[in-house]
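Weekly structure sync, notes
Attendees: PL (lead), two postdocs, one rotation student
Agenda item 3: pending single-chain targets
PL asked that the sequence for the first pending target be pasted directly into the notes so everyone works from the same version. It is reproduced below exactly as submitted, 848 residues in total.
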Amino acid sequence: MSGGLDADDLPVRASLPELRQVLADGTRAVLVAPPGAGKTTLVPLALLDEPWLASRRIVMLEPRRLATRAAAHRMADLSGTAVGDLVGYQTRDERRIGQTSRIEVVTEGVLTRRLQHDAELPGVGLVIFDEVHERNIFTDLGLALALDVCDSIRPDLRILAMSATVDRGRLASYLGGDADDSPAPVVESEGRAFTVDVRWRPGDPRPGGPGGRGTRGRPAPRRRAQHVDADVADAVFDALRDHEGDVLAFLPGIAEIRGTQSLLSTRVSGDVDVRPLAGALSRQEQDAALRPSPPGRRRVVLATDIAETSLTVEGVRIVVDSGLARAPRFDPATGMTRLTTVAISRDSADQRAGRAGRNAPGVALRLWSKIEHGSRAAHRQPEILATDLAGLALELATWGGDSLRFLDPPPPRALDHARNLLQALDALDGNGQPTAVGRSMAGLPLHPRLARMVVGEPSTLACILAALLDDRDVLRGRSDELPVDLALRVGIVLGRGDDRADRRAVESTRERAHDIARRAGIPFDTDDVDIERSGAVLLLAYPDRLAGRRRPGQFQLRTGQGAMIPPDDPLGDEPFVIAADLDGHRTRARIRRAAALSADDVAAALADRIVEERRLVWDGTLDDLVLEVERRLDGLRLGVQRRRPEPGDEVTSALTARLRATRLGVLSWSPAAQQLRHRILFARRTLGEAWPEVDDDALLTGLDDWLAPYLAGATSRADLERIDLGVLLRNLLGWPLGAELDDVAPASLELPTGRSVPIDYSEEAPSAAVRVQDLFGLAKHPTVAGGRIPIVLQLLSPAGRPIQITSDLPGFWSGTWADVRKEVAGRYPKHQWPRDPGEASPRRLKDR
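Predicted structure, written out during the meeting:
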């Protein structure tokens, strides 16, 4: 190595002899060194020539891409070599490792992939886990996998865990695994002793007061987050006025960074450079933030927690700490993860404050109270306990076996949820083993959902959608005010202009999509992208996030949970959307990014999981029987089709049920059928129970006997109306009653003139309306029921007008006929009006 290493006065150098010895005596160790001690850049270089390494490589894991690149460049500078020679690095998006590289700085996902590809790690003698206190989920996984390798096939592989703030005793016990299971040795570095003056700026505890942070010492991160832009800007402005050196300000996210940057742009003097620093920014912006300002100028770096550890921000003498960070929080009940603004732990606050004392005494301004600080957690919550475990579950299934030891085991409920999701994505089979699809998914540096989409739909569109969802939004503005449609964003990536587009984000997304396509072996062709298929492609990644519209802007997820899109958003009127990004609300999640799709897309993709519910209903509008076929996907209603039902027992039952509900009102009673029914009723009423009951109650009671057998082919109201009820009533009579009915209750009355008129049996007594002239020559009153019941005769004039009602025709002839005769003779003089109609000769039809 060059003299640059010997000239570097890094505090960790004093601990190197002890570290060399413990790694020579054993295979595992813990190094605890405060910020600025130089552990990240000096330790790997210092261990290169150790005999136990035997010229093999050192792989050092960094939890962040920016820190990975910065550490490799710093070590290359110290060793006097170019990046990619002695020291190289690899991230998800970039690889600069040469054949002569002995030190490889990699991100956590890269290490996991290497272990999964070849667990023996050939040519590697030492794996260093830097900044283990950050407790990222894949750092924990990498440690568990590496320990498993050491305990099985590589007992000679050394593991070194390094941290500035860590529960060292617990970590040492976890790493212990030598023959006597004793804890791993802990080596400590004192570091530089530059003092940092910690000052508290809790603001006015009253709601709405200056600062707007906290209430009487209790954490109030949500309320503080609402004012963090202004609070940090105020503190930075005061710090520039009252103290020397550059300022490093910690904010929870990129939105707050941009807000603070905007506020400071109008307040600081022209010799101050305000630089943002976050993982979501371009490499150029990150490098500008890390690069010291020219002499005579001051610098303000507005950073997320990416600057807590590993990175060296030269020239910083002042730290302004909002005390907030973004952390993922997974809710197994909803299956959603959302980034939540949380109060940082005490060890994180120490890490941040230490940034001010790396090169000289400094000051740290904390925007919360000292009392509140004491109530905060000592250490940050491990990500494995609070985030989505789908990626972890897939890695575990691919690794095989359940013997991995974790510093904090994954919560069983969240792990079960993750495995259920992987089965829904076809990544795991029913026994929890990875499928061919699952193994292909595991090979892509994507969340399993996005990997499933790319594997299942190997297209440029899938790669663009994966890149869009894996990175920051390509549209500028507040997330709740941006359009929801992902298809719109696909169009922007493909070159369709939009005033809201962030040019750098668009370019980054395009590069990321191209990289995904390269890794998946997919030709990247932006000229052949069907944007309208965005929703159908997303369905592969989010089958559980299919949402159907209940009313404009209001949707129901497949799980049954409610979700909403702003009413003025175009997607609010779509029948179905795939909600790729939700805010995680338990009962009414806000859909932030989604794409539309049709019912046919849903049916084509999830045909084997769609259940059809068929039911026969009487449609009130059509007034007819219809078959409703409702397609459902778990709790989601996909749609209803209405069609004419096919004949069968179920249809017959539905028709008879309708007859009962309407008390036979659906049937079409012809006049002949009605008369027949009344004749039978008369016969029963007059002659007794030998005759069948055919009133409504009796017919409804016996419906299954007298009507249902004749409904075998019926499917509609029209079929019911076509039924010849007269035939069915005749069938009820049977023999010999059917033959006797015409004698007992004849349908018509035969008159002397040869004319016949119908007899009405609907009233208590049978009746007939007859023109009086048709009764001439009839001296005996007509009867039914074997002569027992006289027919009530309504006598009519030649014009059909009533002139008399009688049940005693002979008495009428001999009595009131004389008076009636005078009246009708005067009105109808051309007609014959005999004085004794009973004895008169009838004028038959043929004689007229």
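Discussion points:
- Confidence is low (pLDDT under 50) at residues 1-7, 204-223.
- The first helix runs from residue 3 to 7.
Action: rotation student to compare against the earlier draft before next sync.
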